[in-house]
C-alpha cells in the first residue's frame, strides 16, 4: 500500500502526569502468555491516573480485547492505567469463590450448566478464553483469592459485584491474600446491605448501586449510606443524562458535601466518556481503560470504537453447537428433566446424510433444526460490548445477522428465524412467511425464494432509523419499518444481566424444520455493498472477513528504529498514526510476537509503551505496534539494545540464589537455594498463560517436583519469600 511502518523512540522522558509513586520494592512480573521477565525497583510508577478521575476496568479489566473475569484481563487493565477493576464473584459447589459473571458456564467457558453445581476442579478444567479468540485458549476461571493476590501485586483496587453471598469465605480470602481492606470495594443495593458489609469489613469502601430516592438529592438518604461505610454512588449513564442540569448539579453537591463519589457504568463510546468527564463524574467503568485514560487525562479522541467485529459464528463442522467465533450455542428446554422421545431433537450430519442438496457439489456438515416447541430454544450470546448510551436495557441498536439455510416445504404459515428475547416468552422478531417464502416482520415481508434450495439471508438492523433491511443471496429485497424501536423489542441483549437471544424460537410455536449450514452475528450495521460481496451459499460457509476501505486505513509515521537502553534502565517506544485509531503493543522475546503483559510495561494500549527497569536478558527484544481502525496495520519492529547492566536491579536477577535442574527435564525437577529462607516461601508451577498448576508452601532449601504428568512444553517456576520473588523457565521433554 506504499505506506511507511516504523516505530520511534525516546528515553528518560515519561509524561509525569500519568504516573503514581505508590509502588516500592521488588515485584515479580505477572506471568501471562508472554514469558517476559522484568523487575520493578523502588519509587517506580505503576499505572496512570488523573486526579479525581477513577478508571474502573469492567468485568475484570480490559474486556474489549481480553476474556472477561480472567487474570489476564485484570492484569492488562492495571497495565493500561485502570485505578480499579470490577469483578463478578460467584461460588462453586465446593464453596470456593471464583470470578464469573453469569450464573451458568455456557457463555464464557467450554462447560455447560449452573456454576453452583460444579466444583472448582471441574470449572478450572474448562477453557475460559477461546470464546474471545483462539490466542486465549487455555485460560482458566480464576479464584477470588488469585484475583486479590494479583490486585495486591499491582497495588490496585478491586471492586466486587458479589453474585453469591458467603461472608465467611469472602473475609477469609481477603485476609489470606494480604490485600488491604481499603483496596476492596463492594457493591451494595440497599441500606441493609450496607449494614451487613460494614460490620463484616469495616474498612472496605461500599459502592451503592441500588435505586435512587424519589428526590434525587435527598441528603438524609445518602447520609444514612455514608454513615454505614458507603463511599460511592454508582448509576447507569442513562440516569446521568436524565438528571443532567440543575438536578445533577444539586446531586453532585450533596454527594461532595458528604464525601461521596459519583460513578457511572459501562462507558465505551468516546463521546460519552468525554461527556462523563466534562460533567465532573469521579469514576467510569469501561471495557477500554487505556482509551478512557487517554480521554480523561490527555483530552484525546480516545481511539476508534466500535471496531467492526464478528462476535458470533457457528459453522457446525464439529457436528455440535460449538462456535467458530464467540460462545457456543445452547439448546434449552424447560422440560429437560423429563424430556420424552417425542420431543423434537437437533440433529447433526451432512447434506448427503439428510438427503438434501449438496452445496457447490460437496457434502457439507450441517445441522437440522426441528420445529421447536414453545418451551424450547436455541440460545446464542451476542457478546457485543456496550455501545452508545448504556442504560438499564443495555441493548445494541445496530447489528447484522447472517444465515445459510435450506427450508423444506412446510404447512406452517410462519417460521421464526430470530428472537431477541432470551426467555422465549415473546413472538419471534424475523419470520419466513411460507405462502411465498418472503422474509420480514409486521406484515412487511420482502423477496421470495424456493423451497429445498440453499439460500444466504442477511438482516441488517438500524434501530436509529427504526428499520430492518433484508437480503437474499446478497441482493437487497426491502426493509421493514420497526416503529420507534430504539431500546425496544428489536435491540439485542449485550453485557447486562441475561445476555442470550435465540435462533428459530417462538413462544406460540410458529416454527418449522430448517437445515442450517452457517450462522453469524456482527456488531455493526452492514451496508448493501458489504452484504452483496458475501454472495450466496458456499461450501466454505459464511466468510469471516470484514470489508475494509483501504483509503480509511491509518498511516504510521516514519521514525527511527532501534533503541539503546539508557543508564536508568527505562526504555520508551512510540509510534503515531493519529488519535482515531487503536494501538496494541506486542513484544518478541525470541518465541514469537505476543501482547505485552506484566508490571514492567505501562500504557501498552495507546501510542506509547514504557518498558521499566530493563534487565540484561532483554537485549535484542523486539517491539511493534498494531495500529487499527478495522484495518490492522502493523508497524516495523524496533529492537531494544542493552549495552550495560542498568543500576538498581536486584541481585537476585543475576545471582545463583536459585538453581533449578535438570533443565530441560524429563519430568522430575529439583530446586536448591544458595541461602536459607528466614520464613516460609511459596513454590509455584505455572503455565505460560499464568495458571497455577501446583503450589507448595515450605521452609526447605532443597525441593523436588514431579511434572511428568504434564505435556511437553515450557513452564514457569515462581518462588516467593523473604520479600523477594524469583522466576525460572522450565522446559519439559519426555
Describe this entry's structure for a reader.
The protein is α+β, with helices and mostly antiparallel strands and 734 residues long. Among the domains are: 310-534, Jelly Rolls (Sandwich); 655-732, Sandwich (Immunoglobulin-like), CATH 2.60.40.3080. It contains 12 helices and 45 strands. The strands form 9 sheets. An 8-stranded parallel beta barrel has the order 4-5-7-8-9-10-11-12, surrounded by 6 helices. Strands 13, 15, 16, 19, 24, 25, 26 and 29 form an 8-stranded antiparallel β-sheet that branches. A hairpin with a 2-residue loop joins strand 25 (467-472) and strand 26 (475-481). Helix 1 (71-79) runs parallel beside helix 3 (144-153) and helix 3 runs parallel beside helix 4 (167-177). It is globular. Mean pLDDT is 83; it is low at 1-48 and 645-656.
Unreliable runs: 1-48, 645-656
DSSP helix fraction: 10-25%
Mean pLDDT: 83
Rg (C-alpha, Å):
27 Å
**End-to-end C-alpha gap:** 47 Å
- Name the strands of the widest sheet in spatial order: 4-5-7-8-9-10-11-12
Total DSSP E strands:
45
Question: What is the oligomeric state here?
Answer: single chain
CATH topological fold name of the domain at 310-534: Jelly Rolls
What is the overall shape?
A: globular
The major sheet is characterized as: 8 strands, parallel, barrel
Per CATH, the architecture of the domain at 310-534 is Sandwich
Amino acid at each position: 500500500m506504499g505506506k511507511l511502518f516504523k516505530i520511534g523512540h525516546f528515553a528518560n522522558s515519561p509524561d509525569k502526569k500519568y504516573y503514581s509513586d505508590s509502588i516500592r520494592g521488588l515485584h515479580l512480573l505477572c506471568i501471562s502468555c508472554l514469558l517476559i521477565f522484568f523487575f520493578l525497583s523502588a519509587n517506580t510508577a505503576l499505572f496512570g491516573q488523573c486526579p479525581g478521575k477513577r478508571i474502573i476496568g469492567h468485568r475484570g479489566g480490559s474486556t474489549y480485547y481480553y476474556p472477561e473475569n480472567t487474570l489476564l484481563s485484570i492484569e492488562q487493565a492495571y497495565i493500561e492505567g485502570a485505578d480499579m477493576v470490577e469483578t463478578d464473584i460467584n461460588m462453586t459447589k465446593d464453596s470456593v469463590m471464583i470470578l464469573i459473571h453469569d450464573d451458568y458456564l455456557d457463555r464464557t467457558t467450554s462447560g455447560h450448566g449452573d456454576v453452583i453445581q460444579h466444583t472448582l476442579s471441574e470449572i478450572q478444567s474448562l477453557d475460559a478464553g477461546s470464546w474471545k479468540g483462539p490466542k486465549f485458549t487455555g485460560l482458566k476461571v480464576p479464584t477470588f483469592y488469585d484475583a486479590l493476590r494479583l490486585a495486591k501485586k499491582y497495588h490496585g483496587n478491586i471492586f466486587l459485584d458479589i453474585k453469591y453471598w458467603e461472608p465467611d469465605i469472602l473475609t477469609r480470602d481477603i485476609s489470606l491474600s494480604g490485600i488491604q481492606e481499603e483496596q476492596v470495594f463492594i457493591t451494595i443495593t440497599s441500606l441493609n446491605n450496607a449494614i451487613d458489609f460494614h460490620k463484616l469489613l469495616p474498612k472496605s469502601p461500599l459502592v451503592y448501586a441500588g435505586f435512587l430516592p424519589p428526590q434525587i438529592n435527598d441528603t438524609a438518604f445518602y447520609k444514612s449510606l455514608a454513615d454505614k461505610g458507603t463511599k460511592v454512588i454508582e448509576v447507569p449513564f442513562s440516569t446521568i443524562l436524565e438528571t443532567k442540569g440543575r438536578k445533577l448539579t444539586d446531586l453532585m453537591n450533596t454527594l461532595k458535601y458528604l464525601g461521596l463519589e459519583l460513578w457511572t457504568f459501562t462507558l465505551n463510546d468516546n463521546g460519552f466518556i468525554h461527556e462523563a468527564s466534562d460533567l465532573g463524574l469521579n469514576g467510569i467503568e469501561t471495557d477500554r481503560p487505556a482509551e478512557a485514560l487517554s480521554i480523561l487525562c490527555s483530552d484525546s479522541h480516545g481511539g476508534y470504537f466500535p471496531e467492526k467485529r464478528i462476535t458470533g459464528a457457528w459453522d457446525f463442522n464439529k457436528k455440535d453447537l460449538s462456535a467458530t467465533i464467540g460462545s457456543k450455542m445452547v439448546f434449552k428446554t424447560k422440560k429437560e428433566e423429563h424430556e420424552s422421545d417425542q420431543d423434537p431433537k437437533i440433529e447433526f450430519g451432512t447434506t448427503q446424510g439428510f438427503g438434501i442438496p449438496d452445496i457447490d457439489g460437496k457434502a457439507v456438515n450441517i445441522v437440522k433444526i426441528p420445529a421447536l416447541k414453545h418451551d424450547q430454544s436455541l440460545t446464542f450470546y451476542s457478546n457485543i460490548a456496550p455501545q452508545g448510551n448504556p442504560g438499564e436495557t443495555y441493548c445494541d441498536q445496530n447489528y447484522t445477522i447472517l444465515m445459510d439455510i435450506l427450508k423444506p416445504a412446510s404447512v406452517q404459515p410462519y417460521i421464526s428465524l430470530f428472537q431477541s428475547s432470551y426467555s422465549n416468552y415473546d413472538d419471534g422478531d424475523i419470520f419466513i412467511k411460507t405462502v411465498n417464502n418472503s422474509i420480514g416482520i409486521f406484515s412487511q415481508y420482502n423477496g421470495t425464494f424456493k423451497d429445498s434450495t440453499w439460500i444466504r439471508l442477511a438482516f441488517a438492523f438500524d434501530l436509529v432509523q427504526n428499520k430492518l433491511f433484508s437480503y437474499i443471496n446478497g441482493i437487497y429485497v426491502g426493509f421493514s419499518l420497526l416503529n420507534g424501536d430504539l431500546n425496544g423489542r428489536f435491540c439485542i441483549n449485550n453485557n447486562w444481566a441475561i445476555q442470550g437471544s435465540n435462533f428459530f424460537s417462538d413462544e406460540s410455536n410458529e416454527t418449522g424444520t430448517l437445515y442450517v449450514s452457517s450462522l453469524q452475528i456482527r456488531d455493526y450495521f452492514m451496508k448493501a455493498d458489504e452484504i452483496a460481496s458475501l454472495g450466496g451459499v458456499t461450501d466454505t460457509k459464511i466468510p469471516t472477513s470484514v470489508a475494509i476501505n483501504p483509503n480509511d486505513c491509518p498511516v504510521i509515521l516514519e521514525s527511527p528504529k532501534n533503541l539503546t537502553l539508557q543508564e536508568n534502565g527505562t526504555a520508551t517506544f512510540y509510534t503515531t498514526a493519529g488519535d482515531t485509531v487503536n494501538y496494541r503493543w506486542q513484544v518478541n522475546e525470541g518465541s514469537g510476537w505476543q501482547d505485552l503483559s506484566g508490571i514492567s510495561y505501562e500504557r501498552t494500549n495507546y501510542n506509547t509503551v514504557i518498558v521499566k527497569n530493563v534487565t540484561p536478558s532483554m537485549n535484542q527484544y523486539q517491539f511493534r505496534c498494531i495500529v487499527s481502525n478495522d484495518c490492522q496495520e502493523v508497524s516495523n519492529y524496533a529492537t531494544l539494545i542493552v549495552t550495560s547492566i542498568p543500576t538498581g536491579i536486584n541481585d537476585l536477577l543475576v545471582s545463583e540464589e536459585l538453581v533449578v535442574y535438570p533443565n530441560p527435564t524429563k519430568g522430575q525437577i529439583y530446586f536448591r537455594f544458595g541461602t536459607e529462607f528466614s520464613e516460609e516461601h511459596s513454590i509455584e508451577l505455572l503455565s505460560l498463560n499464568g495458571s497455577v498448576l501446583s503450589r507448595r508452601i515450605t521452609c526447605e532449601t532443597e525441593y523436588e517436583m514431579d511434572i511428568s504428568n504434564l505435556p511437553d512444553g515450557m513452564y514457569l517456576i515462581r518462588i516467593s519469600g523473604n520479600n523477594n520473588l524469583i522466576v525460572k523457565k522450565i522446559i519439559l521433554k519426555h
